[in-house]
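Q: What residues go here?
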């Protein structure tokens, strides 16, 4: 079966055909089919992606999970939890050492996956590398590194990001905001709101805030509603041109 048909079956309604396609991709380490799926993923509806994730998860087992390492060369945010979550189920000291090696010496795609691994398996052996990557220009690598550092409660990285909110470089501030959102400490919300208030990239910053704390929660948490309302206003102003609908 050609790769186009495999991906078509994997994303179709027929569960039996879809599961067979998932098994063929995983069992045969068909990275070309996975690359095709990754390329098409941005055009798939969320419910289709969810179905694909369930089918791939079902196809992965203790006999074939090592095949997933071959897929780490193809980064796809829509299916990274399938790949890394499955590897994490079978995690051991040897696998963690392999992931650390990829984090240090792999391609950017492999580093992004490896950073994600350490959000599932928060082994502090990777902390220095994760701090190094947490403010990279590569957004996937930076986000996953920050996520892993949050799982480790790495306060030194958190404090560094808080300090960077006061930077004169607006892009550095935005990187700090994205780090704090991925780190998932709600104590950072107030400093982020204050950074947004005086930033020329206020819409960009405002668009990140609901990923760490919902608008409704913001409205019930803070007595001073002015910054929260400013956040809402910036989000509405940014929709379409700056923030995706």
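A:
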């Amino acid at each position: 079966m050609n790769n186009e048909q495999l991906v078509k079956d994997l994303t179709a309604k027929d569960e039996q055909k879809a599961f067979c396609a998932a098994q063929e991709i995983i069992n045969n380490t068909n990275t070309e089919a996975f690359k095709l799926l990754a390329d098409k993923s941005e055009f798939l509806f969320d419910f289709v992606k969810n179905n694909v994730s369930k089918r791939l998860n079902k196809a992965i087992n203790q006999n074939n999970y090592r095949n997933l390492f071959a897929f780490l060369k193809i980064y796809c945010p829509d299916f990274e939890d399938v790949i890394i979550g499955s590897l994490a189920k079978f995690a051991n000291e040897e696998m963690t050492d392999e992931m650390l090696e990829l984090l240090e010496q792999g391609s950017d795609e492999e580093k992004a996956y490896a950073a994600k691994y350490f959000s599932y398996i928060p082994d502090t052996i990777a902390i220095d590398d994760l701090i190094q990557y947490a403010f990279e220009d590569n957004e996937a690598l930076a986000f996953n590194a920050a996520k892993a550092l949050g799982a480790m409660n790495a306060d030194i990285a958190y404090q560094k990001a808080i300090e960077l909110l006061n930077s004169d470089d607006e892009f550095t501030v935005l990187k700090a905001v994205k780090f704090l959102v991925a780190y998932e400490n709600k104590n950072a919300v107030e400093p982020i709101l204050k950074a947004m208030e005086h930033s020329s990239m206020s819409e960009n910053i405002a668009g990140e805030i609901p990923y760490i704390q919902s608008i409704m929660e913001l409205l019930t948490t803070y007595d001073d509603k002015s910054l929260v309302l400013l956040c809402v206003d910036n989000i509405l102003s940014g929709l379409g041109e700056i923030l995706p609908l």
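A: Context that may help when evaluating the design: The chain has 15 helices and no strands. The mean pLDDT is 96.
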